[in-house]
Amino acid sequence: MTPSSSHPGVRRKHRLELLPSLLAERILVLDGAMGTLIQAAGLTEGDFRGERLAGHPHDLAGNNDLLCLTRPDVIGDIHRAYLDAGADIIETNSFNATAVSQAPYGTEALVHDISLAAASVARKAADEAEAREPGRPRYVAGAMGPTARMASIPADFADPASRGVTFADLQATYGDAARGLLEGGADLLLVETIYDTLNAKAAIYGIEEAFDALGVRVPIMLSATVGRGRRMLTGQTVEAFWNAVAHARPLSVGLNCGSGAADLRLPLEELSRIAPVFVSAYPNAGLPGADGTYSETPAVTAAALGEIAGAGLVNIVGGCCGTTPDHVRAIAEAVRGVRPRTVPEIPAMERLSGLRPFNVEAARLPVVIREAEAAGFDSAALASLIKEGRLDDAIDLLRRQPDEGAPIVVIDTGPAPVEAPAMTRLVNLLLSEPDLAALPFAIRSATREAVEAALACLQGRSVVMTGGTAGGMRGEAEASFERYGAALLGGEM
Hints:
493 residues, TIM Barrel, 2 domains
């Protein structure tokens, strides 16, 4: 049976076909804060529980995402307020819809249900707005937040290899959330407030699995947050971040949250220069005061974003924490008639990264790896040290490469199999050394499991050498490596 034009999937396909031309014609407007308006609604514990969670053993007030299930009317009204203010894109109320973020409330099992409901509520409001203005599509972006745990940072600084969450855990819960958002009608998936790129890479992997499972693919949007030093919380630079996530082929990449629109100007200039995709910006309304309120008025935020737009740096603008429908209305007016940023053509390079970027011509990359390996390196000795648990000695061996000026860290364990847990611990220990963490890694090992164990620790963009000892890794294994964002390098080095 052929679906009718009113079928949700057909309508989503039509909206998405229009999106590139809309972004080329004008700057699109994203909505503002969800939590700020929820807090203003004066809700009680009972609102968060509803009938479904009346007997839940934990307090639930403050778990805003649950309101999609228990008070969808409140969330729908917030969406409508932003649509009325001029938003072209509204975000679902699902920022914390991951098992990691729901765990403190004992509601991990509700990730899919929350995500499905969040997208459904937003889609209903967007459909109502489209019905009032049939010639103006309204988009629902499935919001996927960063969680409070970082896959790149030690959980216990007494043990630099420890982590509070794993790539696999994040990949699974982001995939669950993505399925719910897609089933609920999201047009886009927005991985936002990224301060640890490894978390974002796990989200991208989980999203790709959801696409495969549902047979549906929608555009991905990515948005990081940086400090006034123009680095992410992990210390990664803007360009290193972009190199690490470009494999997602996103519709847009951008910056959100932070300390206000004015502080986004310099990092947006960098991102606009290097990213051959659309660029977004949706800052906080300044910084919160002691009472939790934000300092920037709608006029201040709109003026700063208007200047950024006038400089040709953005294609999508909106607001983050502390912003309201009044902010979005002012932002929409400030960018009305302003030409959107022109997406640049970027020269082809192998764009790798650790905390810093490393861009090299593809033909030069094998030479770089050989030069790094020549720095007193011995793959058999490295494999032996790892198997014997002598990881400090293994690190000393690997350190010779950057100490002798190599711009990349090569971990080559030769034909001897290395256990995945040992590889995980080695790489996490290496990343505790700032001068090593700054560099991209190149990985070669005899088993797919060991290679993936290394990739699951690396927030930058790495290289997997599939030739030589890993020469049998083809097809499914290579596709998996690419989902981690790795560059693939075949043949003998």
